[in-house]
Amino acid sequence: MSKRRVRAIFRKELREYRHNGNIVYAMSILPLVFLIQPLIQVFTLSSSASVPLRHEHSLLYMLAIPVLVPAVLAAYSVVGERLQGTLEPVLASPIRREELLLGKALSAFVPSVAVAYAVFGLFVAVVELFAQPAVASALIQGPDLLAQLVFTPLLAAWSIWVGIAVSARSSDPRTAAEISILLCLPTVAVTSLIAFNVIPAKPATAIGLGAILVILIRLGWRVASANFDRERLITGTK
């Protein structure tokens, strides 16, 4: 595998993202939705609310960002090439399938994880500065910070392979994005249920979910590779 070709695909995809209004919109609006709503809720809480808040894991609600943002980016990866008429030249080049997939996956992974960490860091900073001290100390807990750090890249990687697999089978970018988000919603549901204590937030739960995500990522790579058939993509057959 050539690192130079992977980097070339990576840079090409990033350039296309910058010139695509829908991609820029998704990368800005989706994170803001998951940032503003929790902040409004936090700022309305009084100090007395800190006691029940200590038994919740509300910060895990923001793990929806590394699920949904990369799904939208990856959903554009193949169908976007077809829409622009650049798919056939790319597939006819000497780039290996693995190099092309890895370059496209990295181009969605890096900005998505960066956005997720940035939004989460901004949330924590604003809460520490402006929320009630008791509320801030109850909300920002060490295990939740660690969960954000560890699960953000895992969730993003899983969503990306889902998006690429869907994109390889789609002919419309909007449809591909909608299907990718729909397929990733169960992951958002699980993180939300943990955030609100419907599913107990225990070390065993975190280890189990981490192991499941690793398996899903490997499975997603295989499914995306299987869907990325050059002949089928060029002819447009299903």
What can you tell me about this protein's structure?
The structure is a single chain. The chain is mainly α. It has one domain. The chain is 79% helix and 0% strand. The chain has 12 helices and no strands. α2 (21-43) runs parallel beside α7 (97-130), α4 packs parallel to α9 (142-168) and α4 packs antiparallel against α10. The longest helix has 34 residues, at 97-130. The radius of gyration is 19 Å and the shape is elongated. The two termini are 28 Å apart. 37% of the residues are buried. The model has no long low-confidence stretch (mean pLDDT 83).
Gyration radius from CA atoms, angstroms = 19 Å
Largest sheet: none
Q: How many angstroms separate the termini?
A: 28 Å
Give the overall average pLDDT.
Answer: 83
Poorly predicted ranges:
none
Coarse shape: elongated
Count of domain modules: 1
Order of helices and strands: HHHHHHHHHHHH
Extended strand count? 0
Tally of alpha and pi helices: 12
- Work out the helicity level: over 70%
Q: Which structural class best describes the helix and strand composition? A: mainly alpha
Beta content: under 5%
